């Protein structure tokens, strides 16, 4: 990761410094969103299966 400034020390650096500058942040965001969608899908399928199993007993 590269810093968004050319200073050799922290003297004179003001404001927020974003550590993800210049990285492949979009890739990680897409991967995280995909994992959330997968978790929601499998959770939904599990709940549907559990609901059908209890409905048969009652």
Could you describe the 3D structure shown?
The chain crosses the membrane at residues 26-44. Keywords: Membrane, Transmembrane, Transmembrane helix. With 58 residues, the protein is mainly alpha-helical. It has a domain at 24-58. Helices cover 57% and strands 0% of the residues. It is built from 1 helix and no strands.
> Which value, in Å, is the CA radius of gyration?
23 Å
List low-confidence stretches: none
Query: H/E series, N to C?
Result: H
Strand content: under 5%
What is the number of E strands?
Answer: 0
State the helical fraction. 55-70%
Structural class based on helices, strands and sheet pairing: mainly alpha
Question: How many DSSP H or I helices?
Answer: 1
Distance between the termini: 58 Å
The best one-word shape is rod-shaped
**What kind of sheet is the major sheet?**
none
Mean of residue pLDDT values: 81
């Amino acid at each position: 990761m590269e810093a968004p400034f050319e200073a050799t020390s922290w003297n004179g650096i003001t404001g927020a410094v974003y550590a993800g500058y210049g990285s492949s942040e979009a890739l990680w965001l897409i991967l995280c969103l995909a994992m959330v969608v997968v978790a929601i899908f499998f959770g939904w399928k599990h709940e549907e299966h559990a609901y059908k199993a209890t409905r048969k007993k009652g």
